[in-house]
Amino acid sequence: MTYLDHAATTSLRPEAAAAMMAALEHTGNPSSLHKAGRQSRRTVEMAREQIAVALKARPSEVLFTSGGTESDNQAIKGLHWERQAADPNRRLIISSEAEHHAVLDPIEWLVGSGQAEVYWLKLNRDGVVDLNDLATVLAERAREVSLISVMWANNETGVIQPISEIVKLAQPHKIPVHSDAVQAASCLEIDFAATGLAALSISGHKIGAPVGVGALLLQRAYKPVPVMHGGGQERNIRSGTIPAGLIAAFGAALQSTIADRDERNAENKKLRDVLVNQVQALIPGTVVTAANAERMPSVAHFTFEGCEGHTLLMLLDAAGVYCSSGSACTAGVHRPSHVLGAMGYSEAEALGALRVSFGRGSTTADVENLLAALPDAVEKARATAALSRVHRQA
Amino acid sequence: MRVLAALSGGVDSAVAAARVVAAGHDVTGVHLALSANPQTFRDGARGCCSLEDSRDARRAADVLGIPFYVWDMAEEFRLGVMEDFIAEYEAGRTPNPCLRCNEKVKFSALLDRAIALGFDAVATGHYAKIVNGSNGAELHRAVDPQKDQSYVLGVLEQWQLEKAMFPVGDTHKPDIRLEAEKLDLLVAKKPDSHDICFIPDGDTAGFLTSKIGTRAGDVIEITTGEVVGRHSGTHTFTIGQRRGLNLGRPAADGQPRYVVKIDAAENRVYVGPVDYLSVNVINGIRPTWPNGEIASGTEVGLQWRAHGTEVPARLEITDSGVRVQVAESIRGVAAGQQAVFYIGSKVVGSMIIESSELVTQ
Questions:
Q1: Angle at Cα B73 formed by Cα B71 and Cα B78, nearest 5°?
Q2: Quick one: which H or E segment has residue B5?
Q3: CA atoms of A172 and A170, how far apart (whole Å)
Q4: Other beta carbons within 10 Å of B125
Q5: Would you call B51 and A391 a contact, using CB atoms and an 8 Å cutoff?
Q6: Average of pLDDT values for B315-319?
Q7: pTM, 2 dp
Q8: Is any Cβ of chain A less than 8 angstroms from the Cβ of B79?
Q9: Contact (CB<8Å) A391/B116
Q10: A67 torsion bin: left (phi>0), alpha (psi -120 to 50), beta (else)
């Protein structure tokens, strides 16, 4: 098996498994006052400190959630509602169409239900946010803006956004900036305090913790309206019994992710660069996505001209190589990537996408296995794309 | 062989795939997403493109231990089946969408992809049999006459039949359900699908009106030429239809009235007594001959609608197509339907019915 889909989810780290099992052995609700409760609470607070240290935040700025989607929803809806309540004129959310659906959809829901307006920032062909465009819209409409949300690194292409510059442009207007760092957390250095971000989303399963836990880093000055109401855990923002086992795993996973990050990045980058060079040499009509942008070392993203990405994935799967098209999937049916669409790709170009993502344990053999299967798979996926064109003509 | 098993989410295709796996082939399962907007669940009558069906198909593949994928053929289905369905009704004809789906989607778009991807055959849960004969692969009726689907496959050509596998055609349906139960397939007791899959509520006239609109016109009594009512569009009628004519008053002869003729160009629907439905000559176009053209004068069995009976008939190849003569007149022959020709249990050819008439012999 050749697993090259670490951006979708990555393997459980042994440190995380051990921490979780130890916590699960113990019975006690972290919110209970008795000794059993206090012991669970201690597990939670130690993990909170691990995460705060890893991301250069204060422990009180770490709110545990169920994962990236919840963190994004809480940040966007909650901060928008908070800012709206303080000043009803602040209706405008600034973001980009290359965001993950966990950011796009809450914004579109707010807009669709008449609660907000949105300004989508221009992107260049490499998918990087146009800072001049942001400066222009802020110069004209800063007093209407509720928040800005721009991801740290893109989940499909690996492109890194200029987060510090975005915050610098927003700060004079005292506009909170949120960033989805779900992908970035595995391999980029995150200094929450230094960036000046108001809020940042991370997720456990992208860094070797189980699915079902994440965090929202949130400056203490903000009191976003809760998305869920209940027992008032997590600064009265995120109600629900605090899952000590998942959180213990999350803390341990992030700590060890930071510990081996530089070494892993160097190895992954080496593999990625070999792959990119070889694919370009072996397969005519290869386009390396965002070749001119700063990208995460763990992601290689391609489009192959005249090719069907989902067929490519199926053929690679049959060869025991697991990759992704990176695009959203509805009822198992693949649609062209909205990220590539936002970057100016046509639907036909976007359909031929392949995302290869490296992680802990990726090896040269993985690259070799992919390279052995890919040229034939691309050729066949081009043949089926041609058939689709024939059968879809009226 | 490398076999692609089309899994609809129903029991027949699941058992078909199971049998191909048991025969030792290398099997991959695919479910076709045929609707651009799949509904989550359907009440009552169900089609083959709801999310529930997609999940059932996936679970069948899990139980069989084969890879599973969903292929998006919504656009092929819309163009080849739904648009054709609407256009045919608009032109006053009565299409068979299941037959078109087999012709344009399952054994064309799907089969082409399968071949391009290196598969040797496509297996489905249709009740029909493939027999290897001296003139290539032959299509035969299934052993279960209640479930036989050779009619809706009757349009397939040799190149399609030689890549097709119908593993359940040699078994009666109740035994297929028992086999599914033994294999722990969760769909063993799932009800059969009946209606047109893209019209889940069964209201064909309502569906067509939503696509074509209302085009009011006269209903005319064919025996007198008198206007006896109004209709809201010829596309809401089928030859032989008796219900929903809204004639208001009984006919002079006191006999029930049927739709006997649809004139879409003039926007008229003709009604008349049952005798007017009787014909003994059928003319058709676009014939198919899966094992070679049949000579004029050949005696065949004729089936002219799904789930219909078979009657003796004689074929004549003409310049424009095929003319079929039946010894005893038959009723309910609608333009647009397929006529399928049998010799014994074997399908020897087919045509699309263009016109029919009663000729004094």
A1: 165
A2: strand B2-6
A3: 6
A4: 23
A5: no
A6: 95
A7: 0.90
A8: yes
A9: no
A10: left
Q: Which two tokens stand for residue B181?
A: 């139960």
Q: List chain B residues with CB under 8 Å of A306.
A: none
Please give the share of chain A, as a percent, with pLDDT higher than 70. Answer: 98
- Label the pairing between strands A92-95 and A117-120: parallel
Tens digits of residue pLDDT in B209-237: 999 999 999 999 999 999 999 999 999 99
**CA B319 vs CA A336, B274, B283, B316, B324: distances in Å:** 48, 32, 11, 10, 14
On chain A, the residues whose CB falls within 8 A of the CB of B26 are none
> Looking at beta carbons, which residues of chain B come within 8 Å of A318?
28, 67
* Surface-to-core class of residue A272, CB atoms within 10 Å of its CB (0-12 exposed, 13-18 middle, 19+ buried): buried
CA of B36: which chain A residue's CA is closest?
A: A333
B332: region left, alpha or beta (phi > 0 left; psi from -120 to 50 alpha): left
DSSP collapsed to 3 states, B266-316:
CCEEEEECHHHHCEEEEEEEEEECCCCCCCCCCEEEEECCCCCCCEEEEEE
For residues B238 and B337, give the distance between their C-alpha atoms in angstroms, rounded to a whole number.
11
Tokens 């049927």 -> residue? B258
Query: What value of ipTM does the predicted structure carry?
Result: 0.88
Smallest CA–CA distance, residue B210 to chain A, in Å, is 21
Residue-level pLDDT at A392: 84
